[in-house]
Structure formats: structure tokens, C-alpha cells
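Sample 3 of the quickstart, ligand 2-acetamido-2-deoxy-beta-D-glucopyranose:
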Amino acid sequence: MTKLRILVLCFPYLVGATSLGVNWGTMSYNPLPNSIVVQMLQANKITQVKLFDANPDVIKSMAGTDLEVMVAASNDELASLAADPAAAVAWVSENVTQYIGGNGVNIKWVAVGNEPFLSSYNGMYQDVAFPALQNVQQALANAGHASDIKATIPCNADVLSSPPPYLPSQTTWRPDIASIMAQLTQFLSSTGAPFMVNFYPFLSLVLTTNFPLAFAFFNSTANNIVDGSHVYTNVFDASYDGLVTALTNTGFPTLPIIIGEIGWPTDGVLDANIQFAQSFMSQLVTHMLSGTGTPLRPGVLNGYLFSLLDEDAKSILPGPFERHWGIFNYDGSVKYTLDLTGGVNGAGPSLVPAQNVPYLPTKWCVVNPNMGLTELQSNLDYACNHGDCTASYPGGSCSSLTLEGNASYAFNNYFQFTDQLPGSCDFQGLAEVTTTNPSTGTCEFFVGLQPTTAFHCYGPSMRSEKRFGGVSWNLSILAP
Ligand SMILES: *[C@@H]1O[C@H](CO)[C@@H](O)[C@H](O)[C@H]1NC(C)=O
Ligand SMILES: *[C@@H]1O[C@H](CO)[C@@H](O)[C@H](O)[C@H]1NC(C)=O
Ligand SMILES: *[C@@H]1O[C@H](CO)[C@@H](O)[C@H](O)[C@H]1NC(C)=O
Ligand SMILES: *[C@@H]1O[C@H](CO)[C@@H](O)[C@H](O)[C@H]1NC(C)=O
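Result:
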């Protein structure tokens, strides 16, 4: 530790390190071993990690590293944390205090819930989120962590509302939670914690009819929104400044903002593709680190990319793209070139893939061509319901397969998800194991990873099941 401190003193920031963080979600049938993920984070000089829960194995895997960690209480824990300060004390003791100090984990943040004010939750967590935050912050203070560890509530951009004329400068809090947001911002300001918000330009594009493609990216020169003396060429800046406006009108114009999630998925629907994801992410990283900021907040923008890895066990209620938000594939291989330093200091390094990945044996499960195609669809449906077929949805990387190809894709997913168990490549005799890679063109048939215990202890839970694209804007391009 002493050695590290000296190093940190000599170099205020690690050379080439990015100040952007990443979200590390673990809802995957084939999770990479935690130790390999941590090596990957370090190889990529990522210094900040946001978690969605407080999984002990994940947290412990970062012990002795410099990674700044955000641990989280899930929405389901909010009611009990709100109801009883003692519950928050127990939470902080078990999920924060036990890991820190000595050669421990550098926990810097606690997320209390995840987008609890999302309007599609119909108020389910509305009354408990803020009291839970108060109790957690008090518990952090009781444990002596108040100056080192801050608690906040990651919010979806739908805490904002943009009434006519739909301009950033006219943005308010959503009326049904305006008084909660006033209390929240007052509280965050008093504890020195940031406002955390998630933005999804991808969802704006996919969910809004006639949304101009260029407005989702950062390379447009069109003056899409003219707001007094400010001009907005991208939806990110407009949304960010909508938040700045709401904070300002609540009395906290300088409250720090951290973006909790922002990213672009790569499969499952047409606009979720590698080319768009690479453009968006590289433009985003450059924009955030360049210091240009937004019209209302010049300067470097802080935040966490969504996400580190694909998570194939997530619900696809938000859309088939939901399992494909990783900047890396499920196995830590690189999807596309990205310089996490934003090229701000010249041409920076590219992503470094995970090393020593423990793959299962190199074999796949495909349709046995001699068996005829009877009962194929029902077996395909069964495999898809227990696996992940989102790449074969319209617009996905495997969407041009034949019915037989679809069945092979589904059977292979099931086979890999079940850790290639004997008997899991049968499907009433329709399937067979092969050592010939069946991948074609853009469609990759994957090989699973050796099982780890992590997933079996912490199976898929409900995270944000419902997402929201963003606020409505007055786009000059759109016909009224
Ligand atoms: C610590 O966090 C985990 C995972 O989020 C949760 O299940 C557990 O109940 C928490 N501990 C306490 C004492 O609340
Ligand atoms: C869009 O904004 C302009 C001002 O820039 C305003 O005149 C117009 O009424 C707004 N449109 C709508 C639909 O509110
Ligand atoms: C901006 O990026 C998008 C996404 O890659 C691309 O389709 C578009 O052509 C680019 N526009 C300009 C002006 O470079
Ligand atoms: C393959 O599966 C996808 C997703 O279920 C479906 O949209 C597509 O129509 C299927 N293709 C054929 C040829 O059955």
C-alpha cells in the first residue's frame, strides 16, 4: 500500500488511464471469472467500476486494487432500508465496511436503488427511495465513512419533463416527483454527493418515430435545437442541459452530475450494430473527456459506460438488444476498436481483451440434417426460451439464417448455457454435436465458458426491466 500511495503522489493520474468508469453487470449464463474481469479492467486502465448489487465474490475480487467501486442496493431492498435505520446500518456493515481498509476494496460510492423513479414502475419505489438514501447515508456517517463514501440514487432521464416548447432551458422535474427531486437535490448537496443520471440516445432513436439519426450521435452539425443563444446538435447535450436547468431552478446550479449509464448495444435490432456502437462510443468518449462539455456545463463530463460485458441472462422486455450492451463480448473479447482515453492525448490505446479465458471444449450443437424437420419449431422454441436467440431477431447478426440455421443457433445456445452437459444436445434426436464451427458471416455460434459458482448464487434478478429513451425535444427537423 505504501508503495502505491507514493506512486499515486508522483503521478496524479495513471498515465493513459481513462477517467470514465464502466458498469459491471453479472446477469450472464457464462460469466467470466471475476479475477479475469478485474485483470481486464486493469489492462484497459479503467479506474472506476459501478455494480448493480453487492455480490460478495465480485466485490472481493477487487480487493487490493486501485479500482474505485460503486456498490448498490437493489430496488427490492429500498422498502426495508427506508423503514428502519438499523437495516441500513446492517447493510453498510455487511456490504461496505467489511471490505474496506487494509488491503481491501476501494469502495467510494453506494447506489441506493436503480432508476427507482422510472414512471413505468407506477410509483412502486417512489416513497421509499429517498428515505432509504437518507438512512444509508446516515449509516455511512455512523460508520465513519461520510467523507470518503457518498451515496446517491441513479435516476433515469425520465425524472425530467420537457413541456412545450420542449427546450432544454424549459426543462423541469417530472411533476409527480418534483417535490421528491427538490428534497433529493438538497440532500445530495448537503452530503457532497453527485446527482446520477442515465441517458439513452439509442432508445430515443429506437422508440421515437422520426427521430433524426444524426441527433443520436455527436458528429452532426445540424442545429437541431435552437434554444435562445444555445444550439444543440445532439440529444445527449440537450438532455444533460435539461438536467442542469432543473437543478438550477431547484437552487443547485453547480451540483455535480455523474452519468450512471450510457452506451449503445450491438445486436438484436437493426440500429443495434457494431458500426453505430463504435461511432457512438468513440464520439461519446471523446466528447466527455475533451473538456468541451455542454453549452450550460463546459468541462470534462464524468460517467460510467454501459456496459463492460454482454449479459445474456437479462430480461428482453425492454427489447432484444438488452443483452448486447457490452463494449466487450460475453467472453471479454473485443467487439470494436475504442480508445477509452478519447484520443484526447493523441491516438490512444485500443481495448485489451480478457486473457486466459476458460472456454468449454471447442464444440457446438447443431441440427442433424438427416433427421428431417418435423417438430423442429417446438424444439427451437424450447431452446430459445431457455437460452438467448436475440441475435436471430430481425435486424440481428443472425437474422438471415434459414429455419434450420435458426434451430442450430438455438440448440447451440442451449447446449452452451447448460455447460455442454451430455444430453443437452439432443432435442428429440434432432440435434448433434459437431467440432466444425457452424458460424457464418456476421453470425457467430459461441462456445461457452467453464461454469463458475457466481451465477448459481446470484441468478438473474429484475434490474431495470423497463427503460426509457429520454425527454421529448422540439426538433426543427421533425414535423410538428
Ligand atoms: C448486502 O447486499 C446484498 C446484495 O445486494 C443483500 O442481499 C444483503 O441483504 C445486504 N445485506 C444486508 C445486511 O442488508
Ligand atoms: C419550438 O420552439 C420554438 C422556439 O424555439 C417555439 O416557437 C415553438 O412554438 C416550439 N414548438 C412547440 C411544438 O412547442
Ligand atoms: C455520424 O455517425 C453516424 C454513425 O456512424 C454515421 O451514420 C454518419 O454518417 C456520421 N455523420 C457524419 C456527418 O459524419
Ligand atoms: C428465425 O428466427 C427468428 C427469430 O425467432 C424469426 O424472426 C425468423 O423468421 C426465423 N427464420 C426462419 C426462416 O424461420
